[in-house]
Amino acid sequence: MSAAFRKAAKSGQRPHRERAQPAARRKLGLLEKKKDYRLRADDYHKKQNALRALQKKALDKNPDEFYFKMIRAGLQDGVHTIKQPKDEVTPEQVKLMRTQDIKYVEMKRVAEAKKIERLKSELHLLDAEGKNPNQHVFFFDTKKEVQEFDIATHLDTVPELVGRVYNRPTIATLQKETLKGATDPTHLKKLAQQRKNQYDLLKQRIEREKAMFVIAQKIQTRKDLLDKTHKVKVKKETTNSPAIYKFKFQRKR
């Protein structure tokens, strides 16, 4: 029994008890008590110092300041969170990464690369779409030579063969030897269509080889993430490249 209770019992008076603060109201501050003036004063000064610090920070802030967390951060249920960008993965990549092993994907990529090299050696990339056009520059001394310039005469060939970048014989060669190859317009059109189909096939194989390479990199990245080493994402994953992580260096024993 405390001294206050013993003194009140001797005098026959009812002892004074401090009213306990409910747990649900503790967030509202300290309960008014006779002996808590020091606690209330400390709490009041602590809040005033915090408000002054916030006001000073607001005054010192640059109004033109911008950083990306301003648009990525927000409040969710009263909790400050940062929105993480989602990795960009196509459904085909997800399916292959879940069902196939990296060795199988790499094997398919190497097979596609060999087929691409074989097609390139056969086509020599003649008249291919997207190929940088050849530039043949002629130099003259006077403007009169420029006005009288005839490209067929300068290349010593017939005008019908000027537009060809390959197999363009000279007039002397045409006079000595007979013209070899297809000359019928229908046959030439058919050969041109076949050549275009081969270029389309080459383009498809190049795109497929690139897709296989990206999938292999993404599978390898997911395997590397299984390591317990601390890592930080540097660049998010896209449809054309895997995510880039920076791993903490650990010395191997």
From TrEMBL:
Name listed for the protein in its UniProt record: Probable U3 small nucleolar RNA-associated protein 11
Biological process terms in GO annotation: rRNA processing
Record's subcellular location: Nucleus, Nucleolus
Biased composition (Basic residues): 7-17
InterPro entries hit by this protein: SSU_processome_Utp11 (IPR007144)
Segments crossing the lipid bilayer: none
Keywords, ordered alphabetically: Nucleus, rRNA processing
UniProt keyword annotation of rRNA processing present: yes
Family statement: Belongs to the UTP11 family.
Annotated stretches, region: Disordered: 1-27
Name of a matching Pfam family: Utp11
Cellular component annotations (GO), alphabetically ordered: small-subunit processome
UniProt keyword annotation of Glycosyltransferase present: no
Coarse class of the protein's main subcellular location: nucleus
Domain of life (superkingdom): Eukaryota
The gene coding this protein: Utp11
